[in-house]
Specification:
Belongs to the oxygen-dependent FAD-linked oxidoreductase family. Helices cover 27% and strands 23% of the residues. It is of the alpha+beta class.
């Protein structure tokens, strides 16, 4: 990325009130600061404002408004569409704001807006507590939570938004407000599923649940010829499984890792990632049926630290690789849906691509749909069709993306919408389908109240009414 070709702005007015670091195109760390999780995203901000606290966020928002500059907000920088970066504008960067404070008696954690899942896990597990949210430890809690927050524990404890008790928010006019059930309750409703449309959350307060430090969890994998029976089992088992059971299927090529026998490397497999959010011994008993299914090639289910399990999938989606995905929310896995999945598994184009299938139900499904802005809680699954490839193989991108689109199109007749955090390059067209009619009407009305000029628009955007 040629820093000298990047746009510049006069940041002197901001520097006077800013405690953090301002990174302009001539700064030695500019190129590194422009990198996000998805290596395919190449944008050139005019300024990156690395905030140290809420006062810096307020100053950055007001500076952008006063100077009519486009702005983006960076937490973990994990959105596949690269919402964290804006060309020729200002990145309000929260990545240095990673402070946490646990109240073990109240079972709550305060976490600044730049925290990653790993930061929250590390702080809460010291006290034998856990926050619900996320499958990848290097995902930012901000984007995760504001879109809903699915994760290993959602069937037992609900979504991230279901555990959210309050949020400190810098609004589009540069004011800091508290949103909770008791203060600015309408804004609190919109934050829980409405994405980054209403402001910059500088601090989250979550309720924690007793869990760990040890859980029974891990992964089991089977060759592709057993995929139909494994997916049928998932459909039937998860429908009646206790809330403590979390299951995620994954379709991919077997990676060349020591856990996988060499003869299966590079061949299509189906895996189940299982988490038991309860006593480990009980989990080992309950998940016996999963382990007894078919003839697996890998079984790494074990008693393990919860923080280790939370990082198990990190290596499969590292920073810097190129990613492209499309997603559907689905009902139960019908035989036709399973046939489509197995057919497209056989057509997969990259050894780094994968198709996670997340299982809903349990606690998250019992929250009334109008309680938050997260829709379709009665759905059975989210599927995310993820293509991934190395930067040096960029010439293969069209082939990988075509596989994603073909898979996506084949499942479209079965779609019940989309998880807003899984929208990608088609966000403008698909954001509407991420919400029910009633939720959408309420969200655009809230947008008109809290951000009538659509200042926060570099996101899965909800236009003001």
């Amino acid at each position: 990325m040629p820093a000298l070709a990047s746009p510049t702005i006069d940041s002197a007015a901001l520097a006077a009130d800013f405690m953090g670091e301002l990174v302009s195109p001539d700064h030695p760390s500019y190129d590194a600061a422009c990198r996000v999780w998805n290596g395919e995203i190449q944008r050139q901000p005019a300024l990156i404002a690395r905030c140290r606290g809420a006062a810096d966020v307020i100053a950055a928002v007001r500076f952008c408004r006063d100077h009519h500059l486009p702005a983006s907000v960076r937490g973990g920088g994990h959105a596949v569409a690269g919402h964290a970066l804006v060309d020729a504008g200002v990145v309000i960067d929260l990545s240095a704001m990673t402070g946490t404070r646990v109240d073990p008696m109240a079972r709550t954690i305060q976490a600044q807006g730049g925290c990653l899942n790993a930061d929250v896990d590390r702080a809460s597990q010291v006290f034998g507590l856990a926050a619900t949210g996320g499958f990848i430890s290097h995902t930012g809690i901000g984007g995760l939570t504001l879109g809903g927050g699915i994760g290993h524990l959602m069937r037992r404890f609900g979504l991230s938004i279901d555990a959210l008790r309050s949020a400190d928010v810098v609004t589009a006019n540069g004011e800091l407000v508290v949103a909770s059930e008791d203060e600015n309750a309408d804004l609190f409703w919109g934050l829980r599923g409405g994405g980054g449309n209403f402001g910059v959350v500088t601090n989250f307060t979550f309720e924690l649940q007793p869990l760990g430090p040890t859980v029974f969890a891990g992964m089991i994998a089977w060759p592709a010829d057993q995929a139909p029976s494994v997916l049928e089992f998932l459909r039937d088992f998860i429908a009646d499984a206790p809330d403590e059971v979390g299951l995620m299927a994954n379709l991919r090529l077997a990676p060349p890792l020591p856990a996988f026998p060499e003869h299966i490397h590079g061949k299509p497999i189906v895996a189940l990632v299982a988490t038991y959010a309860g006593p480990p011994e009980e989990g080992e008993r309950v998940l016996t049926r999963v382990r007894a299914l078919g003839t697996p090639v890998v079984d790494v289910m074990a008693h393990k630290p919860y923080t280790v399990h939370q990082k198990m999938l990190d290596a499969a989606v590292p920073h810097g690789r190129h990613y492209y995905w499309k997603s559907h929310r689905l009902g139960p896995l019908t035989d036709n849906i399973i046939d489509i999945m197995c057919d497209h598994l056989g057509q997969i184009t990259s050894p780094m691509s994968s198709v996670p299938i997340f299982s809903f139900g349990g606690a998250m499904s019992r929250v009334p749909e109008d309680a938050t802005a997260f829709p379709h809680r009665d759905a059975a699954h989210d599927i995310n069709i993820v293509a991934s490839w190395l930067p040096e193989r960029a010439t293969d991108a069209d082939r990988h993306k075509a596989w994603v689109r073909g898979f996506f199109d084949a499942l479209a007749p079965h779609s019940r919408g989309v998880y807003v955090n899984f929208t990608s390059d088609d966000a403008a067209q698909r954001v509407r389908s991420a919400y029910t009619d009633a939720q959408w009407a309420r969200l655009i009305s809230l947008k008109a109240k809290y951000d009538p000029s659509n200042f926060f628009n570099h996101n899965a955007n909800i236009p003001p009414a």
